[in-house]
Design goal:
By secondary structure, the chain is α+β, with helices and mostly antiparallel strands. Helices cover 13% and strands 14% of the residues. The longest helix is centred in the N-terminal third of the chain and has 6 residues. It has a three-stranded antiparallel β-sheet. Keywords: Metal-binding, Zinc, Zinc-finger. This is RING-type domain-containing protein.
């Protein structure tokens, strides 16, 4: 089962161009593969954000839930 929180009605989803991400989650996320860089890749369809871009390049399954990765979206954060 996906560990991402359930979507509420009217909330942005994976197919939405804008995803709402908690600032607390962004501030404390680090890549689960290298443990050095900030997580910046969204894996679909599971929705996990757990890897930096360099580590995500070679992945075919999500390192958190082992779901197949159909699409990778890079997040760009602004301050």
């Amino acid at each position: 089962l996906p560990s991402a929180p359930a979507e509420e009605e009217g909330e942005a989803g994976p197919s939405s161009p804008l995803l709402k991400v908690s600032r607390a989650v962004v501030a404390q996320s680090e890549c689960v593969v290298c443990l050095e860089r900030e997580s910046q890749m969204i894996f679909l369809p599971c929705g996990h954000v757990c890897c930096c871009q360099p580590c995500a390049v070679v992945l075919r399954t999500c390192p958190l839930c082992r779901a197949g990765i159909e699409q990778k979206i890079r997040m760009y954060r602004t301050s």
